[in-house]
């Protein structure tokens, strides 16, 4: 009986986990800085509504501005109503589909490559099995299954 409950719990986790959003650390372990190639970094990634971009950098040395395509191409910030991200560990939720453009607003940083353009798609349907799931969320799900199993066994 207990092994059957465990198998059901595993099935639920496997069915639900792929629908979770993905957290992307921009530049992976290198973060957001002048040494990154963010066009290369974004290549092959499947950005979806609900995902999160995490810009990690030394506070005070860089920043993150969401800009339009023209500003991205010209490395300028023309929309003064936008507020820059400046914490050094900025999390930006992708809330709607379409192209998104980000630059570092520190003079000459954008022109030296600190710029990111991505295309955000609609969320994955719940039936999709091929998805990148963050290790943290996978760990949380596995701990939940283990806790549920322990409760069933008690």
TrEMBL record:
UniProt GO MF annotations: electron transfer activity; metal ion binding
A GO CC annotation given for this chain: plasma membrane
Gene3D superfamilies: Cupredoxins - blue copper proteins
Signal peptide region: 1-21
UniProt membrane topology term: Single-pass type I membrane protein
Subcellular location: Membrane
Single GO biological process annotation from the record: response to symbiotic fungus
Pfam hit, one: Cu_bind_like
Domain of life (superkingdom): Eukaryota
Domain Phytocyanin: 22-122
Keywords for the protein's UniProt record, in alphabetical order: Copper, Disulfide bond, Electron transport, Glycoprotein, Membrane, Metal-binding, Signal, Transmembrane, Transmembrane helix, Transport
Name listed for the protein in its UniProt record: Phytocyanin domain-containing protein
């Amino acid at each position: 009986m207990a092994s059957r409950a465990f198998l059901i719990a595993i099935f639920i986790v496997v069915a639900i986990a792929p629908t979770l959003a993905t957290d992307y650390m921009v530049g992976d372990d290198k973060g957001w800085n002048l040494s990154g190639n963010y066009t290369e970094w974004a290549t092959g990634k499947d950005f979806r509504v609900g995902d999160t971009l995490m810009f990690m950098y030394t506070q005070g040395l860089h920043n993150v501005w969401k800009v339009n395509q023209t500003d991205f191409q010209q490395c300028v910030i023309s929309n003064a109503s936008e507020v820059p991200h400046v914490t050094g560990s900025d999390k930006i939720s992708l809330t709607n589909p379409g192209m998104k453009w980000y630059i570092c607003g520190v003079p000459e940083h954008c022109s030296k490559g600190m710029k990111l353009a991505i295309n955000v798609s609609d969320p994955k349907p719940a039936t999709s099995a091929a998805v990148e799931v963050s290790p943290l969320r996978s760990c949380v799900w596995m701990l939940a299954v283990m806790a549920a199993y322990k409760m069933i066994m008690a």
